[in-house]
Amino acid sequence: MKPINRSAVALGALLLLLAPSSFAQVSDWKEIKVPALNKFTIQQPTKITLPNGMIVMLQENHELPLVSGYAAVRGGSRDVPAAKTGLLNIYGEVWRTGGTTKQTGDQLDDLLESRAAQIETGGDIDSTSISFNVLKEDFDPVFDIFIDLMRNPEFREDKIVIAKNQLRTGIARRNDDPSQIAGREAVRIAYGLDSPYARVPEYYTVDAVTREDLVQWHKRHVHPNNIILGITGDFDSKKVEQRIRKAFGSWAKGPAVTTAEIKFQEPKADVYFVPKDDINQSSIRMIALGTTRNNPDYYALQVLNEVLSGGFASRLFSNIRSKKGLAYSVGGGVGTQFDHPGIFMLSMGTKSETTAAAIDALKEELTNIVSNPPNQLELDRAKESILNSFIFRFDSKEKLLNEQIALAYYGYPSDFYSRYRDAVEKVTPADIAQVAKKYVKGDKMAILVVGKAADFDRPLSSFGQVTTLDISIPEAPPGEAGATPAAASTGDEKGRQLAQKVAEAYGGQNKIASVKSVMQKAKVTMKTPQGDIPITLEAIYVYPDRAYQKMGTPMGEMVMVASPSASFMSGAMGSRDLPASQKEEQMKEIHRDPFFVLQHAGDADVTFTSAGTEKVGDIDAQIVDVNSKGAEVRWYVDPASGRILKSSSRAMTPTGPGMQVTTYSDWRMVDGMSLPFQRVISVNGEESGQSTTEEIVINPPVDAKLFEKPAA
Amino acid sequence: MRKAAGALLTFWLLSAGAVGAQDLASFEKRVTSKVLPNGLTILVVERPEAPVFSFFTHVDAGSTQEVPGITGLAHMFEHMAFKGTKTIGTKDYAAEEAALVRVEQTYEAYDRERRKQTGRDEQKVEQLRSEWEKAKTAADEYVVLNEFGEIIDRNGGVGLNAFTSSDETGYFYSLPSNRLELWAYLESERFLEPVMREFYKERDVVKEERRMRTDSNPIGKLVEQFLATAFTAHPYGQAGIGWPSDLDTITATDAVAFFETYYVPANMVVAIVGDVKPAQVLPLAEKYFGRLPARPDPQPLRTVEPEQTAERIVILRETSQPFYIEGYHKENAIHADDVVYEVISDLMSNGRTSRLYRSLVRDKKIAAAAAGFNNFPGDKYANLFAFFGVPTPGHTTDEVRDAIRAEIERIRTEPVTDEELLMVKRRAKATLLRSLDSNQGLALQMGTAQARYGDWREVFRNVERIDKVTKEDILRVASKAFVPSNRTVGLIETRPADAAAVAPAKGE
Fold first, then answer.
1. What is the C-alpha to C-alpha distance for residues A230 and A68, in angstroms, rounded to an integer?
2. What's the pTM value of the predicted model, to 2 decimals?
3. Alpha carbons A548 and A563: distance in angstroms, whole number
4. Which of A231, B175, B281, B428 is the Cys-Cys partner for A69 at CB 3.0 to 4.6 Å?
């Protein structure tokens, strides 16, 4: 194309455009008549309740030669024990991929794909579901598979592995996108960290899920009396009803699903901050509790939400996006749910440099909606928008079916939405002012910011008490480092003997007891995708609970300290506290240190369990699993010398948990003890670094100041 | 242009008998197309399921129409098309018009001074900036905020939105069917006399959009760099959202020039689908869309991406998780081989039987997802066939690359099975069928086909073409395209948060 010569075309074109149009015979838009909408009554689905309590809704639609449907089953992730969070994600996947007793999931894949048919399953917060979508001609065989999956799923192990892999991938990636972080943390702030509505899967909760859990879940929940089945498409209702009665009629009732009572509490109106330095836009959320849809205030709240953020003329869009240019994405309102309070949330993204200005703007809108409630014009606009677009709630037979299933599921009246329409029509300015006052408590909402604090226009502390959230991804439950089944082991005699052997190599129990601290200097080469990075390391362990590490890297010097009084990281740009999970990891590191382990070999919570032999080089090494106050490490011991030739432990890596293996060599005598001076470290089977020790000093003078956090 | 013979299609007969009233023949009865005297094409699709309709306005201009200095302008104009007209969104247009001219004049003076490389007078910059600020404030006095969108909202409009891609710009929403005439007025009015009010505030909004989609999103960042590497000459390599410096400097005057050049009636297709009849729609279209003045066709794009002769790689080192993508240059969607790539994409990526899923996700367990997709980042010009993989924790982009390459090697050298090919063909028919149940979906699909190929029937004919793809076609196309010298690789490598990143937390 021809490049546009900007300065030349410039004003000429603008003026050309501004010149009066020669097609001006069209009248003003206000004079265009809007005729009455054609009378329209949509066909309601047929509802059948089987004697065993299963509810079936059939909605014929002959537009296209397709049939689709889904069954909603009561019980969802809110009913899963916290320690197995993620169970429903795995169940929702493996229900389908694990196949049936007759056919594997792979066989089903081939069968269904060859017919361009789909059957999928899923898990949600309060329900699970199984759905199908099929060409009309294939309905019979595919519906057979649908029934078989509902009645006889097999949950094969190989598919559990895949589902867990996918879930772990999601966990590893959950901090990559700032709006995802904000969305997740906002829910945790609104409902509370321990609320079943806010829990997120962790590596250890995913690990804890077993096939038996899936089998049991299915057994407890998938009963006809817990199911609503809806089918829509090109079929004959009479025939399909017969089919359904035949398939499900003899299915016996099961126990009803109950959900334990879940408590809700208004979140504290504090400021929560998630530091993320590699972004230039802050994700901001204002958070409080919302309400339920059976609340009589629901209708006025919907109108209020419309005024606040429904469309182009809404207050948030007009004032914050159009007038102030502070955001591309801004919105929110008082959220509602059918059977539990929704979240009252405002969301926006703004450049780091206008973070405080954006929060000011949101607060101003909150104050304003109460002090300057919507006038008649705003109310009319909001109501017209809701009422004129009402037709889009039921402009297809499938939408109507889905809506009726949802209403039946939550026990709402089937005419809920026509009542809704009437109620919205009746909302007055006084109603809306009253709900604004009741639900918008001035600007007292929790504030959450994900962003780069160094670039903020004002510190967040100007909005109140700031809590910095630790979003690092933990490997083990907080406070239960390494709480895996092995932790329950009390050890065995052979294990203890091996530990004894190791202690001898270290110069015996007395010698070990005399070690109060160890200083070690080493040159480390870290293998990274960017090439080898040389690091100088100075590490001082002061037993039992203090570690100091100074690293010289090409990017500058960094110090990391973990101790009961202060745990921090400091470098050229200042210092900050270690997140709890990282501190935990550091403490585990001390607990796995051979001096620590051997000094505490007599403690009840330090156990040694033998685990066979394995070749390390030419030596048949004896394996001992050490559990040292919750921290686990496996030692490969040379039975002749008592040296630890190799050790392995689970560790956190930048891409998730992995198995870290260290191989030791070059033993030298230090202060009467034989200690290794060479280490090769690998993670998940790939070499990640080498370290050459230059100096080890036992009981060096230690400057207490090293463990004090430098002033910021 | 791919004009298939006019005979009615037989593809439906090839499927296993699954046909109701939804073949091309039935659509022939329900679709009316007309070219207005000014060159604008209107497409009416009757689907009287409920008293509503949806539409799609396709403008054959996207970010490929941009040159250095004005990247992001197509998208910027799309935003401006919501800002109203001379009659909508203003309190007093005559006065506003003068005020807007002043905004442009003061901005140009300010912009010239601030971007001087030598002899810039900072004091003068500040003074000119302040004059521009004053001019903007004066112009804002006349604005009725967001009136265009408000009219649509109040009349029950839903899904009001638009998009700008490399190839085109699209506008769409749905209304109750008694608002047909109002719609014809609004949609034509917006392209008859758009007014560039609040341009510079909207530019800030677009910069926020860039921060959200690209700067603060690792995959967004990678894709921008990947395309900039894969295309050395063709504008597919430019940032569609705009390079930051261009977003700092594009003007309302630029936007008007872009509009004048490309928003030409002959460059536009309007597809309307739902409870509407041609007898109602066509007179309204003539009355309202007929107002748009005919203007000369814009020049076709000149630049063609030269043949790639050396492999390229772009690596992003981020604290986010690893990601892998590789792309191979290929012809555009009008080329006869494009359906072969469609088949390859389906075979490689669609569902749990796909080759990449079975190899990388199911068997090797090194990826959570992997796929190959056609026509990236657009299909109007020669583009890329790309493969991507999302490594699972503990696995590397190298492993993902090797496994993807092994599957590419298979498709290049071994004929696919009869079952696989049959599955892909069945699926193409079913996918088309499943896409016909929404007014908005139909409007988008048929409007785009009409614009791109000059005939909405291409939506159906494409399935017929897929049905004719052979094993030999796949071998021929794959072995030609998927070679190292034609490849660009992009990846995110995870780096640990380094020592230098230890910054004081000012937030506390």
1. 9
2. 0.84
3. 9
4. A231
